Amino acid sequence: MTAPAQAAPDAVADSVRAATLALCKRVPPVPVDVAAIAAAAGVAEDEVTARWPSAELVVLDAVKAEVAPALVFPDTGDFAADLRAQLTAIAGVFADPAIGPRLVMLAAAASRDPLLSRVFQQRVFTPNRMLSTRRFAAAVEAGQLRADLDLDTAVDLAFGPLWFRLLLGTAPVTGEYAAAVADLVLAGLRPNG
């Protein structure tokens, strides 16, 4: 009896995440609240709120599951190519009309919701930041980046411009823009750059 009880919550969670992502992808955009998520998933609202206290936390989980495979920082040994690939992949996610606007919404909501902010830090920001910092450190060790590099500043320099455009909507986040950012970052961070 224990196995079916454990399988059911996972099936419900998977259904809720899939329904949430489907709602995020609707054009024109629709509000994504707990009632809409529950209705789309075919579950009771209390089944949603038992796992996620807010719709934003469901959106965070659904979006993270959707985009995580595309955002693994490559390590081919060629840091320049890897950085371009990573920033271009991020630009693709940010430009996705189902994902980019929801990330903006999550950032705005996190500024008002301490739980969402903490969960975003724990599940998204910190793990991605650690992987990026490790990749930059490996490039320093390989002599592909300056030895005197402040890793936190370098990571901010690489990823900050994409987030700035996404969050403020100052201009589109495109693959071309991401590649240009990568080239500028590399020009400043390479030895003798």
TrEMBL record:
Domain of life: Bacteria
InterPro entries: Tet_transcr_reg_TetR-rel_C_sf, TetR_C
SUPFAM superfamilies on file: Tetracyclin repressor-like, C-terminal domain (SSF48498)
Keyword field: Transcription, Transcription regulation
Gene3D superfamilies the record matches: Tetracycline Repressor, domain 2
Domain Tetracyclin repressor-like C-terminal residue range list: 74-185
Pfam hit, one: TetR_C_11
Name assigned to this protein: Tetracyclin repressor-like C-terminal domain-containing protein
